[in-house]
Structure prediction request, 154 residues.
Amino acid sequence: MANEAKYVVELTSEERSLIKQMLSKGKAAAYKQRHGRILLLTDQGTHGGKKMSDTAIAQVLDCGQATVERIRKSFVLEDFEVVLGRKNRTNYPRKIDGKAEAHLIALTCSKAPDGYDRWTLRLLADKLVELKIVDSCGKDTVHRTLKKTNLSLG
Prediction:
């Protein structure tokens, strides 16, 4: 209830009409429709004559109370467009680039180290770090790279 008083949603008539238009078309992504409905219900503040709490809105829209609180907070602190859009996902640089991938393939095709019948993903990852081809690398990164190149350890 504290967040409801702290983050009060007041939509402009233009924002309200944009949301209603988006909902009437039904072509928007499900999360956008849910966010729009949350904004409308928090803006109107009444449903059946009494003010709806975040919990009640969450029950009506079949989502979590935290979702309602997050949308309300995001609208007040950020922007209308931000609430209806996805967060920008940061693209992290690839650990294994083309050169490292070539080394990985060469390692995979080479003889396994002494004491091992064949290369394992963890052995390959450790070897790439040991040879200073990459700074750090996990077995999952090696797996994705080998899967992409259709190489098999078997």
Q: What stands out?
A: The CA atoms of residues 72 and 78 lie 10 Å apart.
